[in-house]
Amino acid sequence: IRVYGVYEKLDERIAHYLTASTPPQLFELVFVRLETDFENMRSGFVGDTLALLWVSRRGLSESELVEILDLPHNIWSPFYLAVSEAVVSKAGYLSFFHDYMRQAVESRYLKRYNHYHKYRDMQIKYFMSEKCTDKNRICEEVP
């Protein structure tokens, strides 16, 4: 809301977010806004990023996410700034700040299409490739 660009429609936008009856539903409304703002640059980018974080065991570093999704920094950087308050970095690995966000990601991007294996396979493929040289990360993320 703090970066919503049309002051005259701010009350309408606030009312829209207040339609959510649970915190995960509120996060889903936020995801729709993120998709609107960022998916013109790359379709599916928001869901792919959040789903990869969801399936990771310990979280992913920025560089791992950028490499797995083959993202240019001009797409990643503004998105990361937009979600920086909802994503936390623990020991350099990004993860969800709150479990409500995690629940919303699962509901919107994983359960709906049963994509758990799709994103897990993307991660495994990356960690087993030559791009990943950190043996500890391979042990943490690959079953």
Written description of the protein model:
The chain has 143 residues and is mainly α. Helix content is 60%, strand content 6%. The longest helix has 16 residues, at 23-38. It is globular. The protein starts with 9 loop residues before the first helix and ends with a helix. The model has no long low-confidence stretch (mean pLDDT 90).
Task: Write a compact overview of the structure shown.
The protein is mainly α. It is built from 8 helices and 2 strands. It has a two-stranded antiparallel sheet.
Descriptive tags:
143 residues; mainly alpha
Largest sheet: 2 strands, antiparallel
Global morphology: globular
Q: How many β-strand stretches? A: 2
Determine the structural class based on helices, strands and strand pairing: mainly alpha
Low-confidence stretches: none
Amino- and carboxy-terminal Cα gap = 40 Å
Count of helical stretches: 8
State the share of residues found in helices, binned by percent.
Answer: 55-70%
What is the H-and-E element order?
HHHHHEEHHH
> Average pLDDT, to the nearest integer?
90
Which percent range describes the beta-strand content? Answer: 5-15%
- The rounded Rg comes to 16 Å
Largest sheet: spatial strand order:
1-2
